[in-house]
Specification:
By secondary structure, this protein is α+β, with helices and mostly antiparallel strands. It has one domain (about 45-175). The chain is built from one helix and nine strands. The protein has one helix at about 10-65; strands spanning about 75, 80-85, 90-100, 105-110, 115-120, 125-135, 135-140, 155-160, 170-175. A five-stranded antiparallel β-sheet has the order 1-2-3-4-5, covered by helices on one side. A four-stranded antiparallel β-sheet has the order 7-6-8-9, with helices on one face. The chain is rod-shaped and about 110 Å long. About 15% of the residues are buried.
């Protein structure tokens, strides 16, 4: 038996409407996938930046908590001190932190090691060191007076302003207590 004429299938209008609906659903799906990928990329960039910040704070804390015999000096823009280093058989090396071209740099100089620099943190807008002198408070340079040249500050603070435009912006303040001076 044959179906009556005019009821044999879809009309051209019905096909065009169904294709248009399918295209709208596909476009909505593609825009959703694109939005999810963008969110994932931004989240990944933030996580990478936070990991870099955590590593930098760990290196800084690790160095400062191992300060050894010798002067601690700083002028607000740079910090210099001695600490033992395994590559030098535990002998003290001179460590220097400073800002260079938007990057926190860690320089070192030892007897058996050539002088070198290590990139600790990129994307730094500004860096300011401050030192805590018991009885006086926070000062911008160490030693604050020639009479304290042989003494260490009780704590060192790093105020780091991150450069705008990176995945994570803002400022950090890291305060590290120094060990008792031998």
């Amino acid at each position: 038996m044959k179906p009556p004429a005019g009821e044999a299938g879809f009309t051209l209008i019905e096909l065009i409407i169904s294709l248009a609906l399918f295209a709208l659903i596909a476009m909505a799906g593609l825009s959703l996938v694109e939005a999810l990928l963008n969110i994932q990329q931004r989240t990944s960039a933030r996580l990478d930046r936070l990991a870099e910040l955590q590593r930098a704070m760990y290196v800084l804390d690790n160095d400062l908590t191992q300060v050894s015999a010798g002067p601690v000096t700083g002028d607000g823009t740079a910090l210099s001190f001695n600490r033992p280093l395994a590559a030098e058989d535990g002998q003290p090396v001179r460590i220097r932190y400073q800002l260079g071209a938007g990057t926190l740099l860690r320089g070192y100089r030892g007897r058996g090691l050539p002088q070198g620099e290590q990139r600790v943190l990129s994307g730094v807008g500004s860096l300011r060191w401050s030192f805590y002198a018991p009885g006086t408070g926070w000062v911008d340079h160490w030693p604050p007076t020639p009479g304290l040249a042989s003494r260490w500050p009780a704590a060192v603070a790093a105020d780091i302003a991150l450069a705008p435009g990176s995945a994570v912006s803002g400022s950090l303040r890291r305060v590290t207590l120094l060990p008792a001076q031998p």
